[in-house]
Amino acid sequence: MKARGLIKGGLLVATLIGVGAAAQAHERDASVQPVVVELFTAQGCSGCPEANRTLEAVANEPGVIALTYGVGYWDYLGWSDTFAKPEFAARQQAYRQALRLRNVSTPQVVIDGRRHLSGARSPELQAAIDAEASARQHPPEIEFRETGDRVEVGSGRPPAGGAEVMAVVYQPGLQTVEVRQGDNRGQAVRHVNVVREVKRLGDWTGRPVLFVLPPDSASEDNVVVLVQAKTDRRILSAARRVERARD
């Protein structure tokens, strides 16, 4: 089943119904927070198309928010990644520091900001998703205003070092890029849920706070809001903006 929006006290509440791992043929409690799976990939990286396909396989799984970030440090091989931005590589570097990794790798998957996989092999990725599905306890609630332009983060216990709220703007669905140079020359490389922008909305101190969402996201784009620890980068809570259900 797909994510759907529920009206609660004049707010559009982002919820995920029927949370479960389809590949494991079992259901999780619908109240469990979605698992955020972030793939750092490059169109010029020979090992990345396979990782892209692995992410694509779990992207529609209930209870999973899958995001693709293009990075540009493989451009020297002859093909400039069409989705890469410096801030995406900086986000990957922040994970490297938080996870105490010696180097970044491509492709790399980060699950809920807590664990990573070099590459993206289906059994390992599914096991990590299942493990993270029940890891969060008492996450702060994220509620989108009915107009869709603002979001409220509720009360909760902030982590040591504090937390921040991030808005990730992405284009949902699949995109295909014809790579004409470099290691993947001649391939049609597929991407799912390509990130367009990552914007820091502000701090979360444990008290309810209302934020304005990025105004320049295109109508076809979607937005994920993350409450993320500043120090260890673990994701405390996540929700996807969904349209109001129509009769």
SSE blueprint and pairings:
Elements: E1 4-8, E2 11-15, E3 20-21, E4 26-27, E5 35-41, H1 48-59, E6 64-70, H2 86-98, E7 108-111, E8 115-118, H3 122-133, E9 142-145, E10 150-153, E11 163-178, E12 188-204, E13 209-212, E14 222-229, E15 235-240
Parallel strand pairs: 5-6
Antiparallel strand pairs: 1-2, 2-9, 3-4, 5-7, 7-8, 9-10, 10-13, 11-12, 11-14, 14-15
Kindly list the characteristics that best describe this protein:
single chain, 247 residues, mainly beta, globular, disordered N terminus
Find the structural class using helix and strand composition. Answer: mainly beta
User: How much strand content do the residues show?
Assistant: 35-45%
Q: What do the pLDDT scores average to?
A: 84
Calculate the terminal CA-CA distance, rounded to whole Å.
18 Å
Order of helices and strands: EEEEEHEHEEHEEEEEEE
Largest sheet: 5 strands, antiparallel
The largest beta-sheet arranges its strands as 1-2-9-10-13
- How many DSSP H or I helices? 3
User: Which range best describes the helical content: under 10%, 10-25%, 25-40%, 40-55%, 55-70% or over 70%?
Assistant: 10-25%
Low-confidence parts, pLDDT < 50 over ≥5 residues?
Answer: 1-31
Compact description:
This protein has 247 residues and is mainly beta. Helix content is 15%, strand content 38%. The strands form 4 sheets. A 5-stranded antiparallel sheet has the order 1-2-9-10-13, with no helix packed on it. A 4-stranded mixed sheet has the order 6-5-7-8, sandwiched between helices.
